[in-house]
Amino acid sequence: MARNGLKNYVPRSLYGRAALILLLPVVVLQLVVSTSFVRRDLTDVTGQMTYTIMREIDLLEDVVARADSQEEALQALKPYVEPLRINVRFLPTDAPAERDILHWTEFSGRVVRDTLRSNLPQVLAVQMPNSEIAAIVIGTHLGPMKLVFDQRRVTAAAPHQLILTLVAFSFLMTVISFVYMRNQLRPIKKLAEAALAFGRGRSVPYQPRGASEVKAAGTAFVNMRARIERQIEQRTLILSGVSHDLRTPLTRLRLGLAMLDEDDAEPMLRDVDEMQALLDAFLDFSRGVATSASEDVDAHALAETIVGDWQRQGKDVMLGDMVGSGLVTLKSGGMRRAIENLISNAVRYGSRARVSVMVTDHSLRIRVEDDGPGIPQSQWNEAVRPFTRLDPSRNQNKGSGVGLGLAIVADVARAHGGVLRLGTSESLGGLQADLVIGR
Prior knowledge:
Blueprint: H1 2-7, H2 14-65, H3 70-84, E1 87-90, E2 101-102, H4 107-119, E3 123-128, E4 133-140, E5 143-150, H5 161-199, H6 212-258, H7 262-287, E6 294-298, H8 299-312, E7 317-323, E8 327-331, H9 332-349, E9 353-359, E10 363-370, H10 380-383, H11 405-415, E11 419-424, E12 431-438
Parallel strand pairs: 2-3, 7-9
Antiparallel strand pairs: 1-5, 3-4, 4-5, 6-8, 9-10, 10-12, 11-12
Helix pairs in contact: 2-3, 2-4, 2-5, 5-6, 6-7, 8-9, 9-11
């Protein structure tokens, strides 16, 4: 549980995690060095300097204790205060009580104050209004006595200089490291963008760059992309060639059968038509979206055009909900073929079909529903496999097929980096096919 909770606070991007790895040691090092310096070095040095001034205060107090008046005390203190560079004066007894004055940045001053108060109970006030002058008010039998001296006698000059220097240089090195890290991560980002685009059916220019490992991964991706493109092209060429070569003898058979008696030739003509449909289906499957170019398409307009074509054929195909708006980068030829295949299956196995489109900032969903018998959930995965015919679940008497309709749709979805999801229509009761593509 603790490990899963920690994952929620860890950055998900490589750049964020690299930044965390870079910043965390710097921050920890700063805290350790600052704490060690403040608690050990700065505090110890300030304490030692404060003990020195305390001995001088004890000396001055002994001199004042032997005097009977303030004037006599000041006269007796002259031989001591001049070598010690301390300015001494007595405050009026009726003057308001002196209070501590410390600047909010004076960490060392607080150490001086605490050390004096813990060792000299006669200290009335410790004043350090700036970084130049320090004053200590001491209670004597002649009245409050104020000692003014250079603050550098009790605190180190620029005590925070080390910390500020450390912070400044750490910030500078962090900025330099971020710039360098960004340049190192840019080739990885370019590789990810090229792979994502290729997964969605687009081939963007990409040149392997960066560190040797990243460059090796980029070169492997380029080679893999080239092999896949060659495989798709070869598949298309082979099946296109087979289809083209078989069309000629099929045409001769059709012409020959047309010269025979109509009753005798009709069964054979149906066989020829079925063979022609089979070749066309093979060709569609082999092409996939290879012959389509990526372009910005209005998904709503595309669906409306396709539905209008089917309505002109007298089919009960209607538009459903049209949600969202915006252009989507698609291979329009392949996407049109996929939608038409879904509608063709819907009107073949049912009497009505409905097409809905939803466009969001992150995805495109095209849904085709029908009122046919549907497909059992246990056979959804098998239904999208090529050359699979689900005779028990679909009424094959309403049309013929070779089992490539949904396979072509799934192939188009994968070429766009998406997926084909099958389900049951809640409103029509038949099959519900969702073509979901990321934007």
